[in-house]
Amino acid sequence: MIRAALLPVAALALGAGAPAPEAGSTITVTVTNLRNADGVVLACMTTSDKSFPKCRGVEGAKSAKVAAHEGTLTVTFTDVKPGRYAIALLHDENANGKADRALGMMPKEGFGFSRDAPVRMGPPSFKDAVFDMADEDRAMTIKMRYML
After folding, report:
1. Cis ω on the peptide bond leading into residue 53 (within 30° of 0)?
2. 17 pLDDT band (50/70/90 cuts)?
3. What percent of the chain stands above pLDDT 70?
4. Which N-terminal residues, if any, form the signal peptide (predicted)?
5. How far is Cα 101 from Cα 56, in angstroms, rounded to an integer?
6. Is residue 125 classed exposed, middle or buried when 0-12, 13-18 and 19+ CB atoms within 10 A define those classes?
7. Every domain of the chain and the residues it spans
8. CA separation for the pair 41, 97 (Å, rounded)
9. Quick one: pLDDT band at residue 13, thresholds 50, 70, 90?
10. For range 114-125, the mean pLDDT
């Protein structure tokens, strides 16, 4: 008799019947123009205009790593809260975890940015790559670019 009376209390303590925590949205990025299947594609997404295009050690930044293959691939970011974000991609062809350069400054590997932000004498600014994320799923395409 006592056990039956405690069942509803135990269910509340375990969270049964409580609403699930609100999950964020999903951003699906179609990456086009990959020149080969070497290495991996590294992706980072941040709200930090000060650190963009870098994400390491940035609070709230999201990152992803996908095996490369020639042509097109998909990178997905889940549980994304509404806000202003920018995405940077690197085709890390030798999978060493960094952007390799020729002559100290020219990128040897592919790169891409949200809104296909223009690259001039260095990476684009956050304001050129930023997009608004609402409380709904979103899809975008980013073209991989190669200098060499």
Report:
1. yes
2. low
3. 85
4. 1-20
5. 19
6. middle
7. 23-143
8. 10
9. very low
10. 93
User: 10 Å Cβ neighbour count for 85?
Assistant: 25
- DSSP E strand stretches across 47-143: 62-67, 71-80, 83-92, 101-102, 106-107, 110-113, 131-133, 138-143
119 pLDDT higher than 70? yes
Which is nearest to 77 in space by CA: 17, 8, 25? 25
* Exposure letters 96-122 (e unless 16+ CB within 10 A, then b): eeebeeeeeeebebbbbbbeebeeeee
The answer to whether 69 and 33 have CB atoms below 8 angstroms apart is no
Provide the residue count of the chain.
Answer: 148
Q: Which tokens go with 80? A: 């994304």
Quick one: CATH architecture of 23-143? Sandwich (2.60)
Whether 7 has a pLDDT exceeding 50, the answer reads: no
Q: Are 73 and 41 in contact (CB under 8 A)?
A: yes
Q: Say whether pTM exceeds 0.85.
A: no
